[in-house]
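Here's what a typical entry looks like (protein-glutamate O-methyltransferase):
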Amino acid sequence: MLTIHSASGASPPLTMTQLEDLLIYLNQFHQVDLTGYKRSTLMRRIRIRIQQIELENYQSYFDYLQQHPDEIKCLVDTVYINYTYFFRDPLVWQYLADQVVLQMLANTAPNDPIRVWSVGCASGEETYALAMLFIEALGVEAFQQRVQIYGTDVDSDAILQARQGRYLAHKIELVPPALQEQYFERRDDVHYWRQDLFPSIDFHVHNLIQDPPLPHIDLLVCRNLFIYFTEAAQLQALVRFYLSLEDNGFLLLGHVENLITAAERSLFTPLNRQRKVFTKVPGAHQKNPLLLCRLP
């Protein structure tokens, strides 16, 4: 591989060939598959990591990577974007509460189970926010009896953090004070999710592209993850979402994410374009070639 020296103070350059070679190396020797991420995102995040450990160029970093196996995890942690907070985009959450959740309850019998999947949950804020929506709509007892919420992420460290349900005060500042009081136990400057509500929330590691989708989901929330994926990876994820969701289920994407290609629109149709809420195209599984192949 070529060694290309950077100008003083500039980001170490990385060619597309070097990037693809690195992706092959990570996949073949460390079972780390980052090929679904946009190349521009990977370029930027890898350059950041090279600068963090103060190496001069990519070749120096690749040598370092081979000599220090622990660096694999540091690199992967740099690539993963674990940025989230409670009730991000308040108008979206208001629409969920006023329209989607109420429609979901209308679509189900009083004792039917409700399954919610929070994809790319990072440290769990969005997943716990979803729990608050359903408790407010159902009450605590019915929530505990009927609702199961799954928070998944490819980052094992993020999942461990999410399971703790532990947040500093500045992390929950967008949670209305009444909800803070109702759902969190405060100890000094730390807020802990209520212990009696933990059984209804399950956090686990899950690779959206490689692992089978969770079944019988009524509401699937995947916000601000597609912006980092290639178009092919986005379509793979959407196929899994289609198979995961019940026929009358709902899909929520991030505020800058749209389903614009013909293949994407063959799977989902917008319920509310502004709030990025979608529903399944009826009967697509009977005629859509994307859904005819069997997922692993």
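Residues 123 and 162 are 4 Å apart (CA to CA).

More examples are in the samples folder.
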